[in-house]
Amino acid sequence: MGQVVELPKRQRGALNAVNGKVAPPRRRPNCDSRTREYLTPSEVEQLLEAAGTTGRYGARDRTLLLIMYRHGLRVSEATGLRWDQVDLKAGHLLVHRLKNGVASTHPLRGPELRALRQLHRDWPDSPYLFATERGGPMTASNVRKLVARSGVLAKLPFPVHPHMLRHACGFKLANEGHDTRSLQHYLGHKNIAHTVRYTDMAPDRFKGFWKD
């Protein structure tokens, strides 16, 4: 049997009693650090503003978070976006979904088109929308750090992670009354059960229940 090594106090309890190897710390439940897993539209605006005013590439970073929010993108879906998926003249974005999701073509609105045109002028040599200095795609780690840092600068009351932008998209569209089937296709859910959670929690469903 291997010799048991005395660990610092903060690491005690992480020792595997079978082989003496240190196991990674257990992931804390999300509810320990935040009461919900989505952002409100006003919180998204705060996050976008913070992302645009920090770091060397504020315009790129703000555009990244804007596109993730408007189109409910997962991190890898966003970092993998290429310019051949974008039609700036027609105002279309071809979204390839991961996790066996359903691909679809989304319309691009004015704020997105303006931001993307500027992005293309700033980064003309990369095939990727959201590129690093070397021209390759940003990594998932880059995006997680960006979102976390922007959340702190925006003074949001809880830690923020990128997938909250996808949830924010779903909840906003559900609150605006878009039907579940359309929302399912927009978010690329293969199973509509994953979409129903947004409509089930939309508070606007209950408007008019009380007449004061």
Describe this protein's structure:
- This protein is mostly helical and 212 residues long.
- The protein has one domain: hpI Integrase, Chain A.
- 41% of the residues lie in helices and 5% in strands.
- It has eight helices and three strands, in the order H-H-H-E-E-E-H-H-H-H-H.
- The protein has helices at 41-52, 58-71, 75-79, 110-122, 140-153, 163-175, 180-187, 193-200, and strands at 86-87, 92-95, 104-107.
- Strands 1-2-3 form a three-stranded antiparallel beta sheet, with no helix packed on it.
- Strand 2 and strand 3 (104-107) form a beta hairpin.
- Helix 1 packs across helix 5 (140-153), helix 2 (58-71) runs antiparallel to helix 4 and helix 7 (180-187) packs across helix 8.
Tags for this entry?
single chain; 212 residues; hpI Integrase, Chain A; 3 strands
Helix tally?
A: 8
Large-scale geometry: globular
Instruction: Assign the CATH architecture.
Output: Orthogonal Bundle
The average pLDDT value, as a whole number, equals 84
Give me the side-by-side strand order of the main sheet: 1-2-3
Would you state the CATH class? Answer: Mainly Alpha
CATH topology assignment: hpI Integrase, Chain A
Please trace the helix and strand order, writing H or E for each element.
HHHEEEHHHHH
The number of domains: 1
Overall SS class = mainly alpha
Helix content: 40-55%
Residue fraction in strands? under 5%
**Could you name the ranges where pLDDT drops below 50 across 5 or more consecutive residues?**
9-18
Tell me the number of strands.
3
- CATH homology group: Intergrase catalytic core
Radius of gyration over C-alpha positions, nearest whole angstrom: 21 Å
Calculate the terminal CA-CA distance, rounded to whole Å.
73 Å
